[in-house]
Amino acid sequence: MNLVVQTGRLARDVELRYTPNNKAVAQFTIAVRKSFIKENEDETAYFFPVIIWGAQAENCKKYLHKESKVGVTGELRSRSYEKDNQTKYVTEIVADRVEFLEPKAKDNTNTEQDNYMPNEENIPYEPEREQASLYDNDYINQISDDDLPF
User: DSSP letter string over 101-137?
Assistant: First the structure.
């Protein structure tokens, strides 16, 4: 059985793209606190890239932002691809479900994110760019301890 359940906070905002068939795919990274920290060790976290498809992807883009707390359920998937004549390896969570664990902000200010309409951000899905962005370890390695959302 391949089942992953993680609770964490978004390390950065959600990226949303669309396939040529107009199916939404979103990617974000969650920071999950280490459950065991040695004495005199600073608080650290594991960073997991998450991929979610369809209407849930659009909802993630609409309602989540950096530091949002989420629960993610899905499967762990590892893959490899070629970039600059080097094989890159990626391990990610392909989510079946993302639960929003914090209530929506109650202020009545209209933000750009509140006005988000999926068809307004119809970024084309490009497999080559996906390999270099959605699944690229370089993207994940750009996260530093300063990005910890807790």
Answer: -SPPP------TTTT--GGGG-PBP-HHHHHHTTT-H
Query: Based on the number of CB atoms within 10 Å of its own CB, is 69 exposed (0-12), middle (13-18) or buried (19 or more)?
Result: middle
Q: Alpha-carbon distance 150 to 44, whole Å?
A: 10
Name the pTM for this structure.
0.69
- Which residue type is seen at 51? I
> Which has the higher per-residue pLDDT, 129 or 25?
25
What is the spatial distance between Cα 86 and Cα 83, in angstroms, rounded to a whole number? 5
Q: How is domain 4-147 classified at the CATH fold level?
A: OB fold (Dihydrolipoamide Acetyltransferase, E2P) (2.40.50)
Between CA 28 and CA 8 the distance in angstroms is 11
- The C-alpha atoms of residue 108 and residue 116 are separated, in whole angstroms, by 16
Per-residue CA distances from 97 to 18, 50, 80 (Å): 19, 11, 24
